[in-house]
Amino acid sequence: MTLNGWLQILLFCAVVLALVKPLGCFLTRVMAGERTFLSPLVGPVERALYRAAGVKPEMEQHWTGYAAAMLIFNLLGLALVYGMQRMQDVLPLNPQGFAAVSPEVAFNTAISFVTNTNWQSYAGETTMSHLTQMAGLTVQNFLSAATGIALAVAFIRGFALRSARGIGNFWADIVRITLYVLLPLCLILALVFVWQGVPQTLNGSATATTLEGASQTIALGPVASQEAIKMLGTNGGGFLNANSAHPFENPTPLTNFIQMVAIFALGAALTNVFGRMVGDQRQGWAILAAMGVIFVAGVAIAYGAEAAGNPMLTALGLDPAGGNMEGKEVRFGIVNSALFAVVTTAASCGAVNAMHDSYTAIGGMIPLINMELGEVVIGGVGAGLYGMLLFVILAVFIAGLMVGRTPEYLGKKIEPREVKMTMLAILVLPLSMLLFTAVAVVLDDGLAGRLNMGPHGFSEILYAFTSATANNGSAFAGLTATSPFYTVALGVAMFAGRFLMIVPMLAVAGSLAAKKAVPVSAGMLPTHSGLFVGLLVGTVLIVGGLTFLPALALGPVVEHLAMLTGQLF
Known about the structure:
By secondary structure, the protein is mainly alpha-helical. It has helices at residues 3-31, 39-53, 63-87, 103-114, 124-127, 130-160, 170-196, 223-232, 253-277, 281-308, 311-315, 333-346, 361-372, 383-403, 416-440, 444-447, 454-469, 484-513, 530-564; strands at 206-209, 215-218, 408-409, 412-413. It is built from 19 helices and four strands.
């Protein structure tokens, strides 16, 4: 590790922190329906959409109505994306003449983009037409991100409201997020990417003659627009198969830095939204501090592991000063590859600028742990915050058990119903991750997809189902997951990881919103102090550690020990 590397990491953290308050303030005003500087331009469009849909934005929905609206909206999106893929050979804007997508891949892709996962069991530049990319996948990038933010705000209302029957209006929430936040930011970001050399065209592929005189086909398309929402919405699905390692998606060190900041920007700002909506910004900063502690620790371990390189290669005469550069782009180097890997898995983005399958055992374990913790470190837009708030409820419950009193958080008593729903939401993720992995490692169809034998092959399978369930979408890249077994199983895991967690979370929000505030007393645990930050970090790590330590021991831990002793599998 170098001083220059750490300065780049600190610069990234400083820029993200600088964006928290202004973005948090703007998001809070948007979600409250207040006037912003965009209102003169966007307001008429917003009101026209409400009139066309028959929506009354001021009408609050009970948590069951909010959940039903969200599920119906997303199921319709799933059907639309599936249908577009199956019919793309007869639809316009298909200059390459791509055939219809097979049913199992269309199923996997539809669920993937609706759930904000963006796992890709296909090569974008050779499978999806421009129309499918724009009207199907990119649209869902916006709507799945808007859904996540809407759900986070609905959960926040559960803590902020007093004796309320509703937690907001899903239709109003998703319209405001899309029109006032995602579209304007993505327009600006797409123009920046075009300035840096990212293509934005409706033309088909270009043909070039190489220096050797051969002919090469270069895929083009509306890349910049998808790249913008891919990052801001923590979607991660690349227009091109190599994702952000491809020079058309991520051409320069500046675009690489901007992409990392974009991944964290809205997720970090939502912690400030939380503080503002509950009337105490210190609460938001405490949650962000807990996220930051886990993030910095992960970056330090991953960066250190990749910078140290592989001792087995060093023994063969490779200069260790270069670190582990296998699978990484020279233009990004060790620090920006390791940082990108931790950022994209701390959030549920899944974009990659290096192949995680080529990371060292410990360097690859950190992205895996980030996802196994539920991606509560910043997380996907919205999903990270409501995931961390579920751990907050668990932390104050544990604190209440320690002192022998009913736990409270922000004036709301945390009672058995909330704890049961919280545990149900938290346990959905490990159940899906570990169950699907266990099935895959005993079936021939599951074992057929791995590239490597031994613990690394196990890690490839574990990573795939962890990524799918956590709605991340990145992969170790050594696993061939295009078989019917993997496309269907991963699709089911994505669906479970998104929606089976959301429903109990909204039940908690509805229960909390209906409660009256409890007067502050000396016995209440201060939830904005360093002590609480430590308790929250410990709760996240202990729950994750106890749940996933056996699986990690079978994969990256064994692989690391074998590497140190010079053994190969």
